[in-house]
TrEMBL record, chain B:
GO CC term, one of those recorded: membrane
Keyword Cell inner membrane: no
Record domain 4Fe-4S ferredoxin-type: where: 143-173, 186-215
Cellular location(s): Membrane
Family: Belongs to the complex I 75 kDa subunit family.
A Pfam cross-reference name: NADH-G_4Fe-4S_3
UniProt KW Metal-binding keyword: yes
Name of this chain's protein: NAD-reducing hydrogenase subunit HoxU
Superkingdom field: Bacteria
Organism of this sequence: Acidisarcina polymorpha
Known cofactor(s): [2Fe-2S] cluster; [4Fe-4S] cluster
Keywords: 2Fe-2S, 4Fe-4S, Homeobox, Iron, Iron-sulfur, Membrane, Metal-binding, NAD, Repeat, Translocase
């Protein structure tokens, strides 16, 4: 039987979800016999594969690059999981929404600097006007709220998913957990 | 002369229960260990039926009725859990999350918030509605307390406890609908209002909207149970 192709993705989040994922520690070794990690910031794959079974997406959609990525990921993924409060609800990145992108950029790149104030416009992707959760762009198959979800939550969810079952996420975690 | 007790019998979730004639369905349900979720209700305060989370179905009525405002009637048949009620309760919670800026992870009430706990108990894992992201103020003008309007769900517990228990009526509501705001006095900063600094509003607030400056950072337990004790002691006098 072929192993499950697992991907983890890092969009506009703090990487805390990935840190919590790693906090599974030795349990990751037990699980790793059941999946191939085909894309992740934890490893050095540059291109998202054509066919992924399960993708855990960390982070909100904050820039045009995030938006392009999430559409590509959705197209090439069977089961998409919104991992953590940023992906599920916008969370801290979305705290800029009440102020507007222009005001945030001005605050960060001109008001608070003394040398060469300028708003970056090359190489870095353009920010969207609003930071929004993943499911406002593409269909999401499962939500794991939490900031970050605990390692135990990840272990239970992954164990169940790899066994072909759908876990009851609501009993494991909550917004802000 | 003997006064006949006003006792009524009704059915809640198939269970036959008896109640005093002036009791609400919510009171009777709780007395009989039947859980109905609430946010604006608090034992010791008057009921206003604001949050609509305690909606129940009553036989022979198409309308959903808030249990906290529903007086018992003889022979009444009430259903507190159904697919329809679950759907409406989840949607109400989603509306509350979408209406203001509830960022649980950086909230002083994270882990001690009734809105957050209810979301989990009602199986809410995400909000299907677009977030409004309004720009709202944080009033830190008071020497002891902070009002963060981003976290307010307009349950008006603060308004009622201040008026009904403290007797000061510093808190009130201004505006209409989604633009409603709790205010102190006639929209003066809290620190410049006629606040008596008793802190009752902070303790009964179900979210992180009202908090104590002395409790810095995460993990801000509140103790609304003081209210029933306070009322009990006052009645005993």
């Amino acid at each position: 039987m072929s192993k499950t192709k697992l991907a983890t993705v890092w969009l506009d989040g703090c990487s805390g979800c990935h840190m919590s994922f790693l906090d599974m520690d030795e349990r990751l070794l037990d699980l790793s016999s059941q999946f191939d990690l085909v894309f992740s910031p934890l490893v050095d794959f540059k291109v998202y594969p054509d066919s992924v079974d399960v993708a855990l997406v960390e982070g909100a959609i904050s820039s045009v690059e995030d938006e392009r990525k999430i559409h590509h990921i959705r197209e090439h993924t069977k089961f998409l999981v919104a991992m953590g409060d940023c992906a599920v609800a916008g969370n801290v990145p979305a705290m800029r929404n009440p102020f507007g992108t222009a005001a945030i950029l001005k605050r960060a790149y001109t008001e608070n600097v003394s040398a060469q104030p300028q708003i970056p416009c090359v190489i870095v992707p353009e920010l969207l006007e609003k930071v929004r959760p993943v499911h406002e762009f593409v269909a999401v198959d499962m939500y794991i709220p939490g900031c970050p979800p605990s390692a135990d939550t990840f272990f239970t969810v992954l164990t169940e998913l790899l066994a072909g079952r759908t876990p009851d996420v609501g009993s494991l975690t909550r917004f802000g957990a | 002369m003997t006064v006949a007790a006003d006792v009524k019998t009704l059915v809640i979730d198939g269970k036959h229960v008896s109640a005093g004639g002036d009791q609400t369905v919510l009171e009777v349900a709780r007395e009989n260990n039947i859980f109905i979720p609430t946010l604006c209700h608090l034992d010791g305060l008057s009921d206003v039926g604001a949050c609509r989370l305690c909606l129940v179905e009553v036989k022979n009525s198409n309308k959903l009725t808030p249990a906290c405002m529903l007086r018992v009637e003889e022979g009444m048949e009430v259903t507190t859990t159904s697919e329809r009620l679950r759907h409406y309760r989840q949607t109400i919670l989603e509306l509350l999350f979408a209406e203001r800026n509830h960022v649980c992870s950086v909230c002083v009430a994270n882990g001690n918030c009734e809105l957050q706990s209810l979301a989990q108990s009602q199986g809410l894992t995400h909000v299907r509605l677009p977030y409004r992201n309004p720009k709202l103020d944080v009033d830190a003008s008071h020497e002891r307390f902070v009002a963060d309007h981003n976290r307010c769900i307009l349950c008006t517990r603060c308004v009622r406890v201040c008026a009904e228990v403290e007797g000061a009526h510093v808190w009130d509501v201004m505006g209409r609908g989604v633009d409603s705001m709790v205010i102190t006095d006639l929209h003066q900063p809290w620190g410049e209002s006629s606040c008596t600094r008793c802190g009752k509003c902070v303790q009964v607030c179900p979210t992180g909207a009202l908090s104590d400056k002395g409790k810095l950072g995460w993990d801000h337990p509140k103790h609304p149970e003081f209210l029933t004790y306070l009322n009990m002691m006052r009645e005993a006098q």
